[in-house]
């Protein structure tokens, strides 16, 4: 069964710092350059788990784009990725420390994704997974909507990031993604989707699932994860891990969950599979297996 993943392909410049950042001065850090992008990461982890996966995206005709595609292909990802002449591939500076991370993003060629890139690849897919970043950017929104609309009940969406969710509005985001069956989010993203302030208590998974109209997987990092379809709710603990870098943990979790579901696992078993992959991801620097 083929899975199609739609979204960003970027270069991650990851700076893992021990001491807190010293604004206006220097902070010691270990800097690594690696492949990234939520969609590309999820595709890489799916391939790592033996899933037949195709990634849809756009890179520039530069050395970075060539390197990212070579990495993904070496991991077993089929790349339906357009190379845009004259464009610069996307890149992200990731500041990672204290179990948290902050990202500075340049979407580059990712902003050129269109429905024409997506639609020819969807036929026959058992599942289509779309990164939320595709919906946040008005230049690529139509591609995300086309993917979710075509896939319908076989679609899943990752909410991606709380700040842009608040910018577009939770109800608007749900109007774009409502055809999907599964939504992945963390607590901050769930608050943004519900229109709750950042300081509000953690939202109940059942409430989020009812608002979304499908299955919701709420990721709580070191506190585990919660699944709900609006009627049933279950929680799983985190898998043990020594955190080196949290970048891409949610992407790995989504891949573990989706791979297990495709293999016939129930929600609880799939959640535990996601937790294992998330733990594997945080134990290393970078977002890829």
From TrEMBL:
Molecular functions (GO terms): kinase activity
RNA-binding keyword on record: no
Gene3D superfamilies for this protein: 3.40.1190.20
PROSITE patterns, sorted: PFKB_KINASES_1, PFKB_KINASES_2
Top-rank taxon: Bacteria
Location of the Carbohydrate kinase PfkB domain: 3-288
Keywords: Kinase, Transferase
PANTHER family documented for this protein: CARBOHYDRATE KINASE PFKB DOMAIN-CONTAINING PROTEIN, SUGAR KINASE
The family this protein is said to belong to: Belongs to the carbohydrate kinase PfkB family.
Protein name: Ribokinase
Species of provenance: Virgisporangium ochraceum
Gene it is expressed from: rbsK_2
């Amino acid at each position: 069964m083929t899975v199609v993943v739609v979204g960003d392909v970027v270069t991650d410049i990851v700076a893992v710092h021990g001491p807190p950042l010293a604004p206006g001065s220097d902070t010691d850090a270990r800097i690594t350059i690696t492949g990234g992008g939520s969609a590309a990461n999820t595709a890489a982890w799916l391939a790592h788990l033996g899933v037949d996966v195709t990634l849809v995206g756009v890179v520039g005709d530069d050395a970075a784009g060539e390197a990212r595609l070579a990495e993904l292909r070496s991991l077993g990802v089929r790349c339906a990725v357009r190379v845009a002449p004259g464009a610069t591939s996307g890149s992200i500076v990731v500041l990672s420390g204290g179990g948290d991370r902050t990202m500075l993003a340049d979407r580059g060629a990712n902003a050129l994704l269109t429905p024409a890139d997506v639609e020819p690849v969807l036929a026959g897919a058992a599942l289509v997974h779309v990164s939320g970043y595709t919906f946040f950017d008005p230049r690529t929104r139509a591609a995300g909507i086309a993917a979710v609309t075509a896939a319908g009940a076989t679609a899943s969406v990752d909410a991606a990031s709380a700040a842009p969710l608040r910018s577009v509005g939770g109800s608007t985001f749900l109007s774009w993604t409502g055809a999907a069956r599964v939504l992945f989010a963390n607590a901050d993203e769930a608050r943004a989707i519900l229109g709750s302030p950042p300081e509000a208590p953690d939202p109940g998974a059942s409430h989020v699932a009812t608002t979304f109209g499908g299955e919701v997987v709420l990721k709580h990092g070191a506190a585990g994860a919660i699944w709900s379809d609006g009627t049933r709710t279950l929680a799983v603990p985190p898998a043990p891990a020594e955190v080196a870098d949290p970048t891409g943990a949610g992407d790995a979790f989504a891949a573990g969950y989706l791979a297990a579901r495709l293999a016939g696992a129930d929600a609880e078993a799939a959640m535990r599979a996601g937790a294992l992959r998330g733990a594997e991801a945080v134990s290393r620097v970078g977002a890829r297996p």
